[in-house]
Specification:
The chain has strands at 2-7, 10-13, 18-26, 32-39, 46-52, 57-59, 69-74, 79-84, 93-101, 104-107, 111-116. It is an all-beta fold. It starts with a strand and ends with a strand.
Length: 117
């Protein structure tokens, strides 16, 4: 089993920044992917960005997110970060951390990000 703990969400004004963190613990083995997804009220969950243990990154470059979000990883700590800049009210959502690999597919509980206008 893998446990994921997210932190860093909160309330910010439009144009502000936040950095989300996700720490993985449990049965962690080499060869995995961690990343971030988000889900706004009444909307489907969507990819933000993911990064493998080898450092390969896949990012959702839709116009709504392009150029504003950056994912990074501290492998020694099994931790991933999401730096979010120039936040917009449309970014308001619950942001979920995900871990996937040979041991299965796991999700964190989510952290709320609210951007006021």
């Amino acid at each position: 089993q893998v446990q994921l703990v997210e932190s860093g969400g909160g309330l910010v004004h439009a144009g502000g920044s936040l950095r989300l963190s996700c720490a993985a613990s449990g049965s962690i083995f080499s060869g995995n992917t961690m990343g971030w997804y988000r889900q706004a009220p009444g909307k489907q969950r969507q990819l933000v960005a993911v990064i493998t243990s080898g450092g390969s990154i896949t990012t959702n470059y839709a116009d709504s997110m392009k150029g504003r979000f950056t994912i990074s990883r501290a492998n020694a700590k099994d931790t991933v970060y999401l730096q979010m800049n120039s936040l917009k009210p449309e970014d308001t959502a619950v942001y979920y951390c995900r871990w996937t690999g040979g041991r299965g597919d796991y999700w964190g509980q989510g952290t709320q990000v609210t951007v006021s206008s």
